Amino acid sequence: MLTARNLTKNYSNLHVLKGVSVSVSKGEIVTIVGSSGAGKSTLLHILGTLDTPTSGEVWLNDTNLSLLKGNALADFRNRHIGFIFQFHHLLPEFTALENVSIPAYIAGTRKAAVRERAAYLLETLGLSGRLEHKPNQLSGGEQQRVAVARALINQPDIVMADEPTGNLDSKNARELHQLFIELRDKFQQTFIIVTHNEELAPMSDRQLVMKDGGIVGEILASATQK
Fold it and tell me: Single GO cellular component annotation (predicted)?
């Protein structure tokens, strides 16, 4: 479903990515692991079109993302790629329901349909009693679940998560990773997750190990972990 070929990223004489190729199938949870500075977040941002490679191509289904520019790229990203970050980036003046709805409003979806799907997602994620709460009325784990619902509102082909548990305690981190598995099983949702969490990374279908700007290994989940 997602294929990246020979991605490089250079900043003057600094080579952050050195010919990285990645392939991810629909309904797969892939984690990218490695030490700080290995190039994990840079790779994720390029796969998610938040950054551009120095060379190489990224394809999502039949679309060459490297050819999209400006408004066409922004529209494609909004409709086909969801994002979850370490910090929730919820707008403080809006309720959980409103925060989740924003990407769908940007996509031009009818307001009634947006609110219905946003409420459904929040209820699915265990937040049925929190729809009208603002971020400062939610716990850290609840805020991250709102961010997950926001990432799913446009039914994206793939969700990119950059250290999504980095700001959570161990209990909420474990619950969030379990939530990703449940969403994969229920919606066939595809995830690429950058994480330093050595306990939770093995819960994915595959781990891609990065070092010095390249992928140096791949670890498959055991049958007991899937």
Answer: plasma membrane
pTM above 0.85, yes or no: yes
pLDDT tens track for 140-178: 889 989 999 999 999 999 999 998 888 788 888 888 888
Range of the domain at 193: 2-220
Q: What are phi and psi of 45, to 5 degrees?
A: -65, -35
Closest C-alpha among 171, 145, 151, 152 to residue 84: 151
Evaluate whether residue 225 is within a structural domain: no
Q: What is the CATH number of the domain that holds 187?
A: 3.40.50.300
Dmax over CA atoms of the chain, in Å, equals 52
Amino acid residing at 75: D
- Selection from 50, 45, 44 nearest residue 68 by Cα: 50
| 84: helix, strand or coil | strand
- Kindly give the interhelix angle for 96-106 and 140-152, rounded to the nearest 10 degrees: 20
- In the block, tokens 């793939």 appear at 158
Domain-located, residue 131: yes
Say how far residue 89 (Cα) sits from the centre of its chain. 14
